[in-house]
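INFO  loader      accepted 1 record
INFO  loader      residues=63
INFO  predictor   begin
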Amino acid sequence: MECNIEDNLKVCNCSYPCDRKGRCCECIAYHRRRRELPACYFSKQAEATYDRSVENYLRTRSP
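INFO  predictor   done
INFO  writer      dumping tokens
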């Protein structure tokens, strides 16, 4: 499977400057190693905190 970085960048909501932006498979692998979720799982407000923890995800998604 080929990574289409240009298409990925159109929907990527990550505001953190890194070299994985648009390379979803690399991004997911990176965050998985750190026991985190990538920015695309978070709302715009939650993403801006750069807290990618699963706990933060659950906290921000709770009703």
